[in-house]
Amino acid sequence: xxxxxxxxxxxxxxxxxxxxxxxxxxxxxEKYDLSxxxxxxxxxxxxxxxxxxxEQEVNERFQKFGHNxxxxxxxxxxxxxxxxxxxxxSWVMEAAAIVAIVASNGGGKPPDWEDFVGIILLLLAxxxxxxxxxxxxxxxVKALMASLAPEAKVKRNGxxxxxxxxxxxxxxxxxxxxxxxxPADARLVAAHGGVSIDQAALTGESLPVNKVAxxxxxxxxxxxxxxxxxxxxxxxxxxxFGRAAKLVGSSSDEIGHLxxxxxxxxNFCIIGIVIFLVAEILxxxxxxxxxxxxxxxxxxxxxxxxxxxxxxxxxxxTLAIGAKQLSQHKAIVTHITAIEELAAVTILCxxxxxxxxxxxxxxxxxxxxxxxxxxxxxxxxYAAIASRTENQDAIDTCxxxxxxxxxxxxxxxxxxxxxxxxxxxxxTEITYKTTSDGSVHRxxxxxxxxxxxxxxxxxxxxxxxxxxxxxxxxxxxxxxxxAVAIEDVPSGQVDGEGNGFELVGLLxxxxxxxxxxxxxxxxxxALGVKVKMITGDQLAIAKETGRRLGMGDNMYLSKTLKxxxxxxxxxxxxxxxxxHADGFAGVYPEHKYEIVxxxxxxxxxxxxxxxxxxxxxxxxKANVGVAVADASDAAxxxxxxxxxxxxxxxxxxxRKIAFLFSKFASENETFPV
Length: 673
Fold this sequence. Notes:
alpha+beta, Calcium-transporting ATPase, cytoplasmic transduction domain A, Rossmann fold, disordered N terminus
């Protein structure tokens, strides 16, 4: 998220805080930030020990904090359905139906059954369409819940046991290992073997994050390396994951743009009909002394003719045809009202990792730095030899992929010893023998300064200065630097002394944009749609991606949303900053939600694209939420449109289709869309 881990903070704690503070007070980050306070204060705050909680303490905390799950209240399907008959247009239609079957009597004629049946069928059709739409929207929180860990290993009464993750409470001591889904927000109290956590779906960071004792881990993320023990600091809605679910739930209850338009039309019709009904009653009965049945028939004509009674149905059918057209472009429309809103979009906000980019690391070959006469291709080959060929991490996958066929990487050599990456020396090392002449060599790859410290051969002040300059350049551009060094082992022994490592190259690693992203952004800008990047990744990486895609690098960290624009930026306030900036980095789900909300409040129609859990709240809040291919279940459920193939070009095609169909609908129902 941020470029640095948050520093520990000291706080003054009240006596027995777990009992004397309310839940809201405990999770008020302005007062007590459990993610950054000193470890000792965390244990004091939660009244916990490394031996775990007792059963009595657990039961008391259930009463205070509830279970570690996302509560999702189910509304009766019947009530949901009936509520779609409670709106201005439906009121007029219902009034017309009542008049047709109840009041339209007398004169020796039966009630007006034909009009009654026709009106009821239209009411049912409109309600069914709306009901299906809302049921689809309600699946987002369920998908979030499905992403949570089902079980957790916890220490209670000094003994380890496996329990349902829903039974965790703040203060529990948990154990996580390779492959585990983190069951709750927690702080590491012990880390073994270089703990690495994949939290890309939550925070948008393109690489697994290395964690040490004291760092925070998030519910729903996955342990990719190492083992750790941690103290639970947040459960249920008081977690990173829970806050995202709460935002999704709150935005799903909001009224859409199309519903607002229909409500305005309905209100206008009601006012007009009431005025003309009063006038018609006075004229017919007081003025011309009409018979009761004759007058009622005229009033029924006014009721039915005074509103575009088939408008919602015709609109829904028209938009459904547009959705079918979009499906031919590999886009599934889950909420058909998004068709109309897509046509009016003026700002497209997009996640970076996995949306604008591939979420797949690559070596930027043209930028590789050489420090000897060894060619770039050979440097990459050396790095590939010093990588795992099985059970690879993201870096090893990137390097072996850049070389080519994994099976040929170690052709002609015999591995003698391989030392995997560890957080102490921050490098890998392989000792191998060439089968052709039996000579023994070593290769090491890793963090630039770890490799530089290792090197002794042909190392000069100029080379050191150049490496530091190259690393700084990569950092400014958001590229990760990986150094490679080699040495010979004259003795031919596995543990024999080498002739000294020599630095041969520096590999720049980055998450590349999708092949069609740049063209799509250019087309969007040409159509008058401004594109903004909103990412949880680092600011330097966001700016470099923006430069490569031609969308600008006028980007800021998420803290500016709270602190206000920097004095030198020239922006008046936060709204002005959000409107004109090219993007924001280091954001959490609530920041993405806030950005979309503020832009909507400024009068803009917003589309949001994303793929992870961290994007779900903003996808749900946006006028049009678009989940890209391979998105998480939570993102797909929160979105209005789901892409089934990589790339964003379908959004531009979809906007054209949406514009044509919304225009057709408006022309055929004579109301503005």
